[in-house]
Design goal:
The chain is an alpha+beta fold. The chain has a domain of 128 residues: Beta Barrel (L,D-transpeptidase catalytic domain-like), CATH 2.40.440. The chain contains 3 helices and 10 strands; from the N terminus they run αβββββαββββαβ. The protein has an 8-stranded mixed β-barrel with strand order 2-3-4-9-7-6-5-10. A hairpin with a 5-residue loop joins β3 and β4. The longest helix has 17 residues. The protein is globular, with a radius of gyration of 16 Å. The relative contact order is 0.23. Belongs to the YkuD family. This is L,D-TPase catalytic domain-containing protein. Pathway: Cell wall biogenesis; peptidoglycan biosynthesis. It comes from Rhizobium grahamii. Keywords: Cell shape, Cell wall biogenesis/degradation, Glycosyltransferase, Hydrolase, Peptidoglycan synthesis, Signal, Transferase.
Length: 194
Amino acid sequence: MKFLVLVAATFLLCVCQSNAQIYGPYDDYEVYGDDDGYYNPYLPPPEYSEPLPERRTHRRSTRGTITIATREHTLVYTTPGGEQLAYPIAVGRQGKQWYGTTRVTSKSKHPVWRPTPGMRRKNPRLPAVVEPGPSNPLGTRAIYLADGLLRIHGTNDPRSIGTNASSGCFRMYREDVEELYELVQPGTRVIVQR
C-alpha cells in the first residue's frame, strides 16, 4: 500500500511539474529591490489561489540524511528515528545544478546574502551585500552545504518553488525551511540526485 501511495505521489509531482514555470537567467531571484510581486518573508505567507503541496511522509532511506531529488523538485529529510519528511523545493536552472554527496557545514537565522562576482557582472544592479529583511532572497533561514556557496534556504519568491529557478541553491517555502532548520545539525549528510 505504501508503495502505491509513493507511486501516485511521484506521478502527481511529475504532472504538476510539467506545468511549472521556468525562469530565465536572473529573473525575479537576483533582481534586487523589485517591488512587483513583492513578498515579505517576515510577515504571514500570502494567500495562494491553489493549495500548497502537502508534505508527504513515507519510509525508506538512511537515517539522519537529507536527500534532494532535483527532477522531482523534492527534498526529503529522514529523521534519526527513520521518519521521512518531504518538502517541495526550487532547484538550479539548467547548467547551474550540482549533484553529489556533501554535508551541512553551518546554519544561519536571518542570513546575509552576498551575490557572487559572476552574478554581479551579469546584473550590475545587484548590491555587494543584502542584509536580512524582506528584500533578501535567502529568506529567514539558510543551511550551508560544502564550502558554503551551496545552500538550502528560504525565498522571497515562493512562486518559484517547484521550478528550476535558482543559481544552484535549493529554495524552500518559509515555513518548511524554518522547520528543517530546527531538525538538522552541522554534519548532516546531504545527497543531491538528478
